Amino acid sequence: MASSSLRFTQPTFPNSILKTKTNTFFVSKNVFPTPVPNKGKASNAHAITKLACVNKTTEIAACNQIIGDVNSKLMPLRIGIIGFGNFGQFIAKGLRRQGHFVLATSRSDYSEYCKQNGMQFFRNMDALCEEQPDVILVCSSILSTENIIRSIPIHKLKPDTIFADVLSVKQFPKNLFLEILPPGFGIVCTHPMFGPESGKNGWNGLPFVFEKVRVTDAGTQAEKCTQFLDIFEQEGCQMVEMTCEEHDRHAAGSQFITHTIGRILSHLNLESTPISTKGYKTLLQLTKNTVSDSFDLYYGLFMYNVNATEQMDNLDRAFETVKQMLYGRLHDILRKQIVERVPMQGELRTKSINSRSYLTDKENIKKLASVAIPEINLSDAVTVSSPR
Ligand code: NAP
């Protein structure tokens, strides 16, 4: 289809430009109506009646192509969020920024919040599923996810619905989806590596991990999946494709450790001081970020990631090693004093003043230096403290 054979009405606003692989079309603004549930192509066909195709022979083909493009690429997605708490609301704002429709349901009632933010709230899962969203995005706590997924009335959804999740662990929802969802359903497991605190100034440059676990090329599922992932790409996220298993290995050694250190620090009740260093300020910030997440989330990171226990053990060993390095040195000093009768620094000075015969000043300093800085080999310290 050559672009020269077609002429369309002048653009009425800047968003009304349709790009196909071969052509750019100017379309009136009616082409993006609020989608009517279950109407699909019919409502879009109605919307493009203002296109003026001058060449009759190419009119139908052109319009069909545009309908196809509008349906598969440019129609906003209807995304049903399940679990509309802290993170569900945060992610919903990004979906709205990218022009998609947000439908939400949750254990608690967020209807007022949704009304104020141009989203639709449904009191229960049945009502949300009857709307047949393109994508179901699971944003519930890790701990509640299995019960929630098992209670979804799947038969009410379209047979090619895409299921996505944002859980901070990945192998668990992947296996759960594969076990429960009918084969026609698409599965995309994702983990935005940021949250309401770290992403409050935008998502640009923040990592977004995903695995297309099961996406079929038949129908529009693959295109909708791309459209869904494009939301995060358009927001500037650093898109990282990796398997859920890989994710969990990396996350246990990074995210879980970060949360654990933050949780430990929170028990110290650290406060800002007039002489806080940059490092200390970073620790205060880490503590603040960590405790702003629910304990359920942290427990989920531990319980639902097979690699977390190993990291907890590593952390335990590392702490013991550091303690050993400090106390080991102290023990050496005390041992020298008790067994070898090497006097302590204060004693030395007193004795050297009181008794000239004990040791000369020069000898004192040499002896002290050898006691104060015993030659501890770092690898010895690790071996001593790592019986496991
Ligand atoms: P969360 O405590 O992990 O989850 C809270 C959500 O789970 C709320 O929507 C809550 O519903 C729902 N929920 C909790 N217990 C439930 C139960 N027994 N039955 C039904 N629903 C229940 O906190 P979150 O920060 O909002 O995290 C949500 C998901 O996002 C988690 O899977 C988490 O791993 C993931 N995530 C979080 C972050 C982050 O920075 N926070 C970043 C990336 C991914 P109600 O609000 O209706 O009570």
UniProtKB/TrEMBL annotation:
Start and end residues of each Prephenate/arogenate dehydrogenase domain: 77-356
InterPro entries: 6-PGluconate_DH-like_C_sf, NAD(P)-bd_dom_sf, PDH_N, Prephen_DH, TYRAAT1/2, TYRAAT2_C
Name of the protein in question: Arogenate dehydrogenase
Keywords tagged on the record: Oxidoreductase
Annotated GO MF terms: arogenate dehydrogenase (NADP+) activity; NAD+ binding; prephenate dehydrogenase (NAD+) activity; prephenate dehydrogenase (NADP+) activity
Classification via Pfam families: PDH_N, TYRAAT1_C
Native species: Rhynchospora pubera
One GO term of the biological process aspect: tyrosine biosynthetic process
Signal peptide range: none
Gene3D superfamilies: NAD(P)-binding Rossmann-like Domain
Highest rank taxon of the organism: Eukaryota
